[in-house]
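Quick one: structure tokens for this chain, please?
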Amino acid sequence: MRQSVLTRSLVSAATVAAITGGSLLGTGVGFASAAPAAAPMASTQSVTILATQNFGLSTAQAKKVQGWLAEYWDYNDSIDGLLGTNSWKAFQRCLKTYWGYTGAIDGDPGSGTVSALQRLLRNYGYTGAIDGDAGSGTRAAFKTFADSR
């Protein structure tokens, strides 16, 4: 009987050792097998941010404006209903010629562009201040302008 107790004790000790060792090895191997993250690849492509500013016009209304710009103000980009840089460059040419725009022809519809636009929009129902802020009055008159194209 002594031998069977001794055998069970040895088997139990070996089992505990195997379980403990196995879980320690398993943990270590799991951490060791993680692959390092790949380094990001460098790119030589340039990124162009295509910003549009329709000042409340629908796509259909903006297409009408682009058609007018193409006919009269040397706009030669897509008639896509998105007033982007090239649309605003063409509009700035108009505003510089007739409506007191003094800034660069850069396609940025900033406050100078909006002020000149507001002067044009006096003919389309704009009654607010010439303040360079495209608020609700400017947007409403711009829609009237677009619808008249």
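The radius of gyration is 36 Å.
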